[in-house]
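Q: How would the structure tokens look for this protein?
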Amino acid sequence: MKKWTIAMAGVLAFSTLAVARPASEKEERERVANAGRVVKEILDVPDNIPQDVLDKARCVVVLPSVVKAAFVVGGSYGRGVMVCRRGHDYAGPWGAPVMMALEGGSVGFQIGGEATDFVILVMNDRGMSSMLHSKVKLGGDASIAAGPKGRTASAESDVTLRAEMLSYSRSRGAFAGVSLEGSTLRPDGGANEKLYGKGVTAAEIVEEGKREGPEEGRLLVSRLQQASPHLQK
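A: Here is the predicted structure in token form.
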């Protein structure tokens, strides 16, 4: 019992420290690079995200290695990157990465920690706009559903037509649609300032389209551009 209590305290302490300590610019750049590697690995498998669904996405949010650690009340903490299409009606090429933060929890009895990659597709302008300007509660402020899988899955299904966002997870090699209801997603203001300059907002990076992303974001943007060069409405 004593060993179990000490181990659990260590997990919670690690999670708290991870949230409290601000990341350096080097760490933020590595976050962007990690997001690129995750996207490449996922898109290299055709049966993961259906082409029809990706082609209708306005933005893609990538959250590498989200950490879950909890006792009685489950929690999640992750930092990631969002890339949106540029141009009129967001139908142009993919733009500069925006730093994002995922926070939240779900009731449950869990022990230990688990790292999972998450990918969220933003499927309409409303979902994208709300997330650029404020913290969004998934399943409350913005509807979210587990994304469909397989080459023949369509963005015209009832689930994808109703949802503003579609979410996927990858853990231990397994890729699946998953719901993130109850979590919150917001622009990571401090991280964006580290990469783009003081006072720069997520809305300016996406809507103005005048910012050049960091070198570490080249793989992420180029792989998305290769996979889905144009928005299909």
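Residues 65 and 116 are 5 Å apart (CA to CA).

Residues 2-227 form one domain.

Upvote if useful.
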